[in-house]
Design brief:
single chain; alpha/beta; 6-stranded mixed sheet; 12 helices
């Protein structure tokens, strides 16, 4: 078995062994205090912060740093954006709490949004999004008119739609060609109720877990596998502790540049407007970078000892239809959201 341009220093690409709880709590507290004091920025300059869970070299890392570069270049002397990557400010759940409490300006949540606002579970529906052009249509038809207002009612404001990516399954037991191959596999998932429901329906044993803990869980056998875009797999070195990559593409996960409504409204309107405009114009860079990375990273993985196989999407789609029906009947307006997204 093989086993933030102001950018804050990022953590090592490969997660280390778990930090003792007391030390972890201390480090978190220190980070929160140092972050909350506003740093050593120039007087009169608005200090902005963005946190994300992506490892160095990931799509999150590359795009967040490019966002910071553009903001800091255009708003020189007026605002500075600092990036805290690699879960330096905690997992997605912790950062969403920081947004609500007003101690963080922005984060880039993805799957976890479905645990905060159930309608975001739309993006947990298998094979819903065909490609990035389709995602652009869904953004205009669903995200801004339907999902963004629901997020705002929950205390969050969506500034822009970026990408996490098309997700694939890796594991240490066997190739995954169809749902039957997932039987009994202990599979790490992100925190999202519909992702757990999906993999339960497909026969796996899914367990939600922060991304920062995944490498060690796979390395030690606590988990057999996980599912993520290739950029997360390679940047976190998950291929070093997994034998099989199955190209399922079962879910496309958008990422949402998100802020807490309270803190964001305290910044000068002209600063907010410019940052929001830059966030939205970043989408073209995000999509172009993501498409390029998909090709390059697959080629890199093919050069490793990892066994790579194509899965059968039709078998996964057939097995996951009950998830669509449950979403349609249990989430307010769920059927309408599905219908609008599928057009």
């Amino acid at each position: 078995m093989r086993r933030g341009l102001l950018v804050r220093p990022t953590l090592a690409a490969r997660p280390m062994l778990a930090t003792p709880p007391r030390l972890a709590a201390t480090l978190t507290t220190v980070a929160a205090l140092s972050f909350g004091c506003g740093g050593d920025g120039e007087p009169g300059v608005v200090e902005l912060s963005l946190g994300h869970v992506g490892s160095p070299g990931s799509l999150y890392d590359v795009t967040a740093n490019e966002f910071a570069r553009r903001v800091n270049e255009r708003l020189t002397g007026r605002a500075e954006l600092h990036v805290y990557g690699a879960s330096q400010l905690g997992g997605d759940d912790a950062m969403l709490l920081r947004l609500r409490l007003g101690t963080l300006d922005m984060s880039i949540p993805s799957t976890i949004m479905s645990s905060m606002v159930d309608a975001f579970g739309l993006f947990e529906m298998p094979y819903l999004v065909h490609d990035r052009e389709h995602m652009k249509r869904i953004e205009e038809a669903v995200v801004w008119p339907d999902l963004a207002p629901r997020a705002e009612a929950a205390g969050y404001r969506i500034l822009a739609v970026w990408e996490n990516g098309f997700r694939h399954i890796t594991n240490s037991r066997r190739p995954i060609h169809g749902p039957e191959d997932l039987s009994g596999i202990k599979l790490r998932t992100p925190r999202g109720v519909w992702r757990v429901k999906l993999f339960q329906a497909l026969g796996a044993n899914p367990t939600p877990m922060p991304f920062s803990e995944v490498f060690v869980a796979l390395q030690t056998g606590v988990m057999d596998g996980q599912e993520n875009p290739l950029t997360q797999v390679t940047s976190a070195k998950l291929h070093e502790v997994q034998d099989y990559l199955s190209l399922t593409g079962h879910v496309y996960s958008p990422a949402f540049v998100t802020t807490g409504a309270g803190r964001w409204e305290r910044h000068p309107p002209e600063i907010r407007a410019e940052v929001e405009a830059i966030a939205r114009e970043m989408q073209a860079f995000v999509y172009e970078t993501a498409a390029r990375m998909d090709e390059e990273l697959l080629a890199e993985l093919e050069a490793t000892e990892m066994a790579i196989n194509e899965a059968d999407p039709a078998r996964f789609e057939a097995a996951s239809e009950p998830i669509y029906e449950e979403f349609a009947t249990t989430v307010e307006g769920g059927r309408t959201l599905i219908d609008k997204a599928r057009r």
